[in-house]
């Protein structure tokens, strides 16, 4: 795999372009993540989806706590995709998920949103908010309906997915805070997933010399130190089909077919 990065305005967040030059095959070592937590937000319901996710309702688990001031909201339309989309946790004021007892090291942090109307009278165009995880701003004044409208994949209509890599220190709870952007706007979230990854899958191993380091666009070497957060932009399989979560090597990643994605570089 080759990893290419390009810094964006948010400073501490880099964009990741990931390429797999071959099929993932059964011969690839399956990674067994020390943390694997998939949260069905705004619900008490646990369920599984075919791609291999076990969703846990956020109201009946000791693995996390949610600060006061948010509430459970039902989606007024049904998503065409199976997932945590019947319910959301929603608020016009800040709310925080504190996730306990995670191990130290790099994690995928995945956010799942369904841009639709929520009971009672929460219109999608008023969902404008920022999301912070620990010291990182993952989304800034994110206008969910605007992103949903501009999405170019009709098969995933109004479902928005974001994936980040963050590194946790020993003994840290992970706080994920949702911050409505202005009076009259609200923040919501349908699903959150945290999955451990191997230490130096994307972050640079300090023990590897300069030639082993990932390359910045333009050809300069650029270590990805673990105080940085990363955002996935594309994860491309150079094989002739996409690779779904269930066929990944234990980390529930998806790989798109490269020729379906516009290449900005
Ligand atoms: C849902 O899963 C959580 C975490 O495994 C567990 O604590 C809880 O009892 C489960 N709830 C139900 C209704 O099975
Ligand atoms: C919500 O969070 C933001 C960013 O951390 C902060 O500036 C603001 O004061 C918070 N609002 C309230 C009411 O606590
Ligand atoms: C976190 O782990 C410690 C030690 O294993 C345990 O005592 C504590 O109850 C756990 N906390 C939660 C919220 O699960
Ligand atoms: C968010 O996007 C919607 C279009 O879907 C627009 O109507 C609304 O004004 C936008 N909100 C803000 C605060 O930009
Ligand atoms: C995490 O959030 C909880 C609840 O809002 C708060 O009490 C705690 O101080 C926060 N921890 C950090 C490190 O921000």
Which consecutive residue ranges, at least 5 long each, have pLDDT under 50? 1-12, 21-27
* Helical segment count: 1
Distance between the termini: 18 Å
Q: Would you count the extended β strands for me?
A: 19
Number of domains: 1
What form results from the Cα inertia axes? globular
Integer average pLDDT? 82
Note the main sheet.
11 strands, mixed
Bound molecules: 2-acetamido-2-deoxy-beta-D-glucopyranose
Overall radius of gyration: 18 Å
Tell me the strand percentage band. Answer: 35-45%
Helix content: under 10%
Give the topology string: H per helix, E per strand.
EEEEEEEEEEEEHEEEEEEE
Q: Which structural class fits the helix and strand makeup?
A: mainly beta
Describe this structure in words.
The strands form three sheets. Strands 1, 2, 3, 4, 5, 10, 13, 16, 17, 18 and 19 form an eleven-stranded mixed beta sheet that branches. Strands 6-9-14-11-12 form a five-stranded antiparallel beta sheet. A three-stranded antiparallel beta sheet has the order 7-8-15, with no helix packed on it. It is built from one helix and 19 strands. It has one helix at 144-150; strands at 2-7, 13-20, 36-40, 47-49, 53-57, 64-66, 71-74, 87-91, 95-99, 105-114, 128-133, 136-143, 159-168, 174-180, 187-189, 191-196, 215-216, 229-237, 256-257. It is globular, with a radius of gyration of 18 Å. The chain has one domain (6-258). It starts with a strand and ends in an 8-residue tail after the last strand. Strand 1 (2-7) and strand 2 form a beta hairpin. It has 265 residues and is mostly beta strands. Bound molecules: 2-acetamido-2-deoxy-beta-D-glucopyranose (NAG) (5 copies). Residues 39-257 form the Malectin-like domain.
């Amino acid at each position: 795999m080759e990893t290419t990065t390009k810094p964006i305005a948010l400073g501490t967040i880099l964009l990741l372009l990931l390429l797999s030059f071959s099929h993932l095959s059964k011969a690839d070592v399956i990674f067994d993540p020390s943390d694997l937590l998939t949260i069905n937000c705004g619900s008490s319901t646990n369920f599984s989806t075919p791609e291999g996710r076990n969703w846990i309702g956020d109201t009946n688990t000791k693995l996390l706590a949610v600060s006061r001031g948010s509430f459970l909201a039902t989606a007024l339309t049904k998503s065409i995709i199976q997932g945590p989309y019947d319910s959301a946790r929603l608020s016009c004021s800040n709310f925080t998920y504190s996730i306990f007892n995670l191990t130290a090291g790099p994690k995928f942090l995945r956010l799942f949103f369904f841009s639709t109307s929520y009971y009672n009278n929460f219109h999608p165009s008023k969902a404008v908010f920022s999301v912070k995880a620990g010291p990182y701003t993952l989304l800034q004044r994110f206008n969910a309906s605007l992103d949903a409208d501009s999405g170019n994949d009709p098969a995933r209509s109004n479902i928005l997915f974001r994936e980040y890599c963050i590194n946790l220190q020993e003994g840290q709870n992970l706080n994920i805070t949702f911050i409505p952007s202005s009076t009259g706007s609200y923040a919501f979230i349908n699903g959150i997933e945290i999955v451990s990854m191997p230490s130096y899958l994307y972050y640079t191993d300090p023990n590897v010399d300069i030639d082993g380091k990932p390359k910045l666009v333009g050809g300069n070497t650029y270590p990805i130190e673990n105080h940085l957060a990363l955002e996935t932009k594309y994860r491309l399989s150079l094989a002739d089909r996409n690779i779904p979560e269930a066929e990944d090597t234990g980390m529930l990643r998806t790989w798109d077919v490269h020729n379906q994605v516009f290449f900005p570089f």
